[in-house]
């Protein structure tokens, strides 16, 4: 009874409410509630600073870009660009940049088995450049997470201990905002690409922190071809004026470059796109280190104190004055945090805003409950109150309906729409669904016409196989014919899209043959006729090469051998796929050229 009496005391209830708001503020701080809001505000703040208050960086980073024109200028695949890279390095030896970073995939092996002394031009270029400027070589990551090896003589020629990881660590939403290797690797400090470059710059401060997207303007790049042109013309003056004494990064900026999500657009040639080539993110990290260091996080104790101060919105009756304070509070907080961000200190406002809003709403609810209680008291005082083809095979008795399986040699087909993820994010859902339904309908017909089996749809991808349930004399031939039919039918899909004013789509198709386990896999209530095995996963990874090799269809040597290289298959050399090296062939179906 005594406790109830004390709770009925307005002063006790007020103190209890204040305690609850302070406790909620502590919990919000500890649990990092509002992190999604912090990221959204941070991205907007960086966009604002980048647009209106971009700070110039003395001796800013120079990017040499391997663009689409660079790929068209040379017949060799990139893995065999040794002579061109050697000439570039010789040009850099003349230019004498402060440090030179090669953010490209360097060969993992020697190619002298193709042409004697083929490695020498690249090795000599590295040695020549090393004598004039420090070198840093990028170390990329395989799909399995392990570092891709670089041919050891290349590392030695660059000076040894020059490898640095270009791995970036995105936040949970996929955007890269921090340079903190320990977010996605262990004990990586000092082994990162930009860390190693910064170590050669006297004015650079490395270390983990927030990437400063307010440092510098949007990046331009010097074309790789242009550098080779200056080198061929012996234009040492131009080389020195452009690169001398400045950090230089060579990287891929073509339409097929590996990209990362940036909070702000970084490319001057693509000023509205946040998905940027990875080399731009590396350059922005480095220029952040050169512009006074990466953005530091505010002291957690200061953040906790500010969050608890926001909880004081519990105090005072709800009225116009308090409502005005609630409206002014976020404006002042956002202005202050933006000002601090421009000076290298990150003060995330999300948790503070949530704590203030929680306290305000809690007081609003408290006063609302009080009002209801008062009304109830007055009221109490004065009154009261599954798939078609496989089904046919089962019905014919050719496939048993049990969960047994078999190991069989099949030709696997994987197809994927290029760039569909970004496209689907920017288009209406109804349009995306309608496009996929139309596309899948046409592709399914093409596969079925050539006696293939559609295994599944994976997002915008298709997996199919040839050789089961119907045994085929040459499943590889059927698969190639189906791929050709798919590309022909894609024209019909694109024609219908253009009639609606919608941009056409491009697809890549990969083929590989190998032994897989096939059967009805799943539970008794839900299962599917499918194939599993290394051949399946390898085919899925192989499809990525359609983007880099510029062929709509790629296949392994096993497929090419089975069809005796007929139909104009082009040898693309050995390619790294799923941690291994495979002989890959590209194909542009003849019928496509006839129509």
Alpha-carbon distance between the two ends: 92 Å
Helix and strand content put the structural class at: alpha/beta
**Uncertain regions: pLDDT < 50 for 5+ in a row?**
380-387
Q: Report the total helices.
A: 22
Instruction: Give the averaged pLDDT, no decimals.
Output: 86
Walk me through the structure.
The protein is an alpha/beta fold and about 600 residues long. It has 3 domains: about 20-40 and about 295-380; about 55-290, no CATH class; about 390-595, Nucleotide cyclase, GGDEF domain (Alpha-Beta Plaits), CATH 3.30.70.1230. Helices cover about 45% and strands about 20% of the residues. The protein contains 22 helices and 20 strands. The strands form 5 sheets. Strands 13, 14, 15, 16, 17, 18, 19 and 20 form an 8-stranded mixed β-sheet that branches. A 6-stranded parallel β-sheet has the order 4-3-2-8-1-7, sandwiched between helices. It has a two-stranded antiparallel sheet with strand order 5-6. β14 (about 450-460) and β15 (about 460-465) form a beta hairpin. The longest helix has about 35 residues, at about 350-380.
């Amino acid at each position: 009874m005594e406790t109830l009496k004390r709770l009925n005391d307005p002063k006790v209830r007020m103190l209890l409410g204040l305690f609850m708001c302070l406790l909620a503020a502590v919990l919000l701080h500890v649990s990092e509630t509002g992190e999604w809001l912090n990221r959204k505000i941070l991205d907007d703040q960086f966009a604002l600073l980048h647009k209106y208050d971009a700070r110039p960086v003395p001796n800013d980073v120079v990017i040499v870009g391997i663009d689409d024109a660079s790929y068209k200028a040379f017949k060799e695949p990139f893995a065999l660009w040794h002579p061109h890279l050697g000439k570039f390095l010789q040009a850099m030896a003349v230019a004498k940049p402060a440090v030179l970073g090669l953010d490209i995939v360097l060969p993992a092996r020697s190619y002298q088995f193709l042409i004697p002394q083929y490695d020498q031009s690249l090795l000599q270029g590295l040695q020549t450049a090393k004598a004039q400027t420090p070198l840093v070589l990028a170390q990329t990551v395989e799909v399995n997470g392990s570092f891709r090896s670089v041919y050891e003589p290349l590392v030695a020629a660059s000076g040894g201990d020059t490898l640095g990881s270009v791995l970036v660590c995105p936040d949970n939403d996929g955007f890269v905002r921090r340079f903190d290797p320990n977010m996605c690797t262990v004990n990586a400090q000092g082994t990162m690409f930009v860390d190693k470059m910064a170590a050669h710059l006297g004015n650079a401060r490395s270390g983990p922190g927030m990437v400063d997207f307010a440092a510098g303007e949007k990046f331009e790049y010097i074309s790789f071809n242009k550098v080779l042109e200056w080198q061929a013309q012996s234009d040492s003056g131009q080389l020195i004026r452009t690169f001398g004494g400045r950090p230089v990064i060579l990287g891929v900026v073509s339409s097929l470059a590996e990209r990362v999500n940036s909070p702000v657009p970084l490319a001057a040639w693509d000023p509205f796109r946040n998905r940027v080539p990875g080399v731009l993110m590396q350059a922005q990290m480095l220029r952040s280190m050169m512009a006074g260091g990466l953005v530091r996080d505010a002291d957690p104790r200061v953040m906790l104190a500010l969050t608890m101060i926001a909880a004081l919105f519990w105090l005072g009756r709800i009225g116009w004055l308090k409502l005005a304070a609630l409206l002014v509070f976020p404006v002042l907080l956002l202005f202050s945090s933006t000002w601090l961000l421009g000076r290298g200190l990150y003060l995330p406002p999300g948790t503070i805003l949530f704590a203030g809003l929680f306290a305000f709403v809690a007081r609003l609810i408290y006063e609302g409950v009080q009002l209801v209680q008062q009304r109830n008291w007055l009221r109490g005082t004065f009154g009261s109150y599954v798939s078609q083809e496989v089904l046919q095979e089962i019905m014919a008795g050719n496939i048993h309906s049990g969960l047994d399986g078999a190991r069989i040699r099949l030709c696997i087909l994987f197809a994927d729409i290029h760039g569909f993820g970004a496209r689907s994010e920017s288009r209406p859902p109804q349009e995306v669904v309608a496009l996929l339904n139309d596309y899948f309908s046409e592709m399914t017909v093409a596969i079925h016409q050539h006696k293939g089996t559609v295994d599944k749809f994976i997002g915008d991808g298709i997996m199919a196989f040839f050789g089961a349930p119907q045994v085929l004399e040459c499943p590889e031939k059927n698969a190639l014919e189906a791929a050709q039919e798919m590309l022909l039918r894609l024209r019909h899909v694109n024609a219908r899209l253009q009639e609606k004013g919608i941009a056409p789509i491009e697809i890549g198709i990969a083929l590989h043959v190998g032994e897989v386990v096939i059967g009805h896999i799943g539970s008794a209530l839900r299962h599917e006729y499918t194939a599993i095995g290394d051949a399946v996963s390898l085919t899925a990874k192989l499809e990525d090469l359609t983007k880099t090799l510029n062929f709509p269809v790629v296949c392994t040597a096993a497929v090419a051998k089975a069809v005796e290289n007929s139909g104009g298959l082009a040898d693309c050399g050995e390619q790294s796929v799923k941690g291994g090296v495979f002989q890959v062939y590209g194909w542009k179906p003849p019928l496509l050229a006839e129509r």
